[in-house]
Amino acid sequence: MSPGSTLLKITYRAGAVAAPLVVAAAFALGTLIGVLALVEWPPAAQWLGITDGFLERFARNAIIQLQMLMFLVGVFYLLVRIPFVRRSRDEARDAIADLLDDQPKGADEDPSTKAPARAKQRAAHQQPERIEALVARAEAAETASLAPLSFVVWVLPILGFLGTVIGVSNSMGPLEALAKGESAAKVAPELLRHLRFPFDATFMGLVLLLPMMVCFTVLAARARRSIAELRVSALVTGGAPPRATGS
What's the mean per-residue pLDDT of the chain? Predict the structure, then answer.
């Protein structure tokens, strides 16, 4: 296998996040629709002890629904990405092993073979650069596979802040009515409803963010360790990383 073909192969894997992401999004959307339909079903709501107030504050809150969708996409992506990541790592190991297997072992000193010997020596000097390029491509593949999770970690609190802005903006109407002389007893229920919206959205965003941050941190650490082991095995020890079995 030539260095160019291995580079192209790993580069392709670096962008191969669309398939698991689409599958995760489909599962997440179906799960969310099913959960919302379940809690809105009177027998199920009664059995689960779900009140109309809870449904109004959480299940019917558009921002919270979007947060739950993003969280479910992240959860399902964590599961769906596993075979894709393993295949990308196996291909990186095999590509580097192929380069190390082709590394020249020496050259004859016969004058008739000096030119081929020099070519082999130049190839030997270029070998570390090629291996480092393959490791860099493998690192790019690991980073690309974590991009959707990074987006989920980023977007959850942003949606909470967006809910805060929407809730505070909606509460200006009741406050304006109160300032114009409307009775507090008449204005207070609507004002409190609008104020609960931002607090609930921010609370849900933070609650969903914590487990997702833990998962992202652990996976990022494992990815860095995998790349470090690949680089050490290929460049420092000079030995080929173990090939993937069954691939």
Answer: 75
